[in-house]
Write a structure and sequence with these properties.
Largest sheet of chain A: none
Distance between the termini of chain A: 109 Å
Number of strands of chain A: 1
Structural class of chain B: mainly alpha
Number of helices of chain A: 9
Distance between the termini of chain B: 53 Å
Radius of gyration of chain B: 19 Å
Helix content of chain B: 55-70%
CATH topology of the largest domain in chain B: Rna Polymerase Sigma Factor, Chain: A
Oligomer: heterodimer
CATH architecture of the largest domain in chain B: Orthogonal Bundle
Number of helices of chain B: 9
Shape of chain B: globular
Largest interface: A-B, 30 and 47 residues
Shape of chain A: elongated
Number of domains of chain B: 2
Strand content of chain B: under 5%
Helix content of chain A: 55-70%
Number of strands of chain B: 1
């Protein structure tokens, strides 16, 4: 056993708690090493000096005070098992609120959004024309409109021709 | 403790009787004044009572008890240090009246008694001068006679870290207590003197 190893084992050796094999190794080393033996004696001296510190006894009122404080502790009632703790109640409440919020939100589906927009446009056109259909004069003169010749759609001017005329 | 968990109050009384002295002694050596030590010991028993339903016998009861006690003591030491930064380490620890009853031999002469009191005060100061965790480790090792495995569970550290902690603690004590080791105990030295 080396001096460094003995140094770390000396405290347990003093305490008489080291196992017998380790104790024998330490004692063999101490028998042949004056420096470690001196150190072991110093530690033994400290160990014995520390024994001089007297034990104290608790005051006479100690037990009574502990019992008094224990008696003052609130006892749990049988129904408290069903009462959730405030933190748990808050967490459950928040979770329920979040679930309700998520269920109320519309689904973010682009196909559904387009269909809804087209339906809304058709409804708007029907409502817009409703006033015309309810107007009796317009309905009675509807036949006269059929005698009009359809106007041919005018072709759009090309951007190139417009540029040329400007020049 | 399992009986206390089951609701048997007389078992709590048994625990109180069995562990109050070691607990008060440990706390008295951890903190500066004895009335605080008693208050802290009461607090420890109260915490044991409050936590009785959560107690699981995975370790020795003393390990659990002293773990609570160490945490309570360390918190108190840190709080006191913040409150009383101006108090010197050399200041008297507490007044004579507030000290707990020490078990002394009544037949000692007054000079022997004074010398013995000085020695005790030196030892007490040397222990109190240790950093808190070293102090707890030394007290559990020396006075509560716990082994490395148990102390490491109380202090929540590895055994190798504990060995290093104890080594440093006893090194500090070796320096602080060297004069007492060299000087013989007063009443033993005076045994041969004529009265």
């Amino acid at each position: 056993m080396k001096c460094e190893e003995v140094s770390s084992e000396l405290i347990e050796h003093l305490n008489q708690r080291a196992d017998s094999a380790k104790r024998r190794d330490v004692e063999e080393h101490l028998a042949g090493c004056a420096a470690c033996r001196k150190r072991a004696e110093e530690l033994r001296g400290i160990w014995n000096v520390m024994d001089e510190l007297p034990a104290v006894e608790p005051s006479f009122a100690f037990d009574a005070r502990v019992r008094q404080r224990v008696a003052a502790e609130p006892r749990r009632k049988w129904f408290e098992f069903f009462v959730p703790q405030p933190r748990l109640a808050l967490a459950v409440g928040l979770l329920i609120a979040l679930m309700v919020l998520v269920m109320k939100l519309p689904l973010k589906n682009p196909g559904t959004t387009a269909t809804t927009a087209a339906t809304q446009q058709e409804d708007f056109n029907a409502i817009k024309n409703l006033g015309v259909l309810e107007n009796y004069d317009v309905v009675t003169k509807m036949d006269a409109l059929s005698e009009l010749t359809p106007v041919a759609a005018q072709p759009e001017e090309s951007p190139q021709s417009g540029t040329a005329s400007n020049d | 403790m399992l009986d206390v968990k089951a609701g048997d109050d007389s078992s709590f009384d048994f625990l109180l009787q069995k562990y109050r002295s070691p607990l008060v002694n440990f706390l008295n050596r951890m903190v500066r004044d004895s009335s605080t030590a008693e208050d802290l010991a009461q607090e420890v028993f109260l915490r044991v009572y409050r936590a009785r339903k959560q107690y699981t016998p995975s370790a020795k009861f003393t390990t659990w008890l002293f773990r609570i006690a160490t945490n309570v003591a360390l918190n108190s030491v840190r709080d006191t240090r913040h409150r009383k930064m101006e108090v010197s380490i050399d200041a008297p620890t507490d007044d004579e009246d507030s000290r707990p009853m020490e078990l002394r031999a009544p037949e000692k002469r007054i000079d022997e008694h004074l010398l013995e009191r000085d020695r005790i005060e030196t030892i007490r100061r040397a222990i109190l001068a240790l950093p808190e965790k070293q102090r707890a480790a030394v007290l559990l090792h020396k006075y509560e006679e716990m082994d490395y495995a148990e102390i490491s569970r109380v202090l929540d550290c590895s055994e190798s870290a504990l060995k290093s902690l104890l080594f440093r603690a006893y090194e500090n004590l070796r320096v602080q207590l060297a004069p007492l080791v060299a000087q013989p105990v007063a009443h033993r030295a005076g045994e041969g003197r004529p009265s």
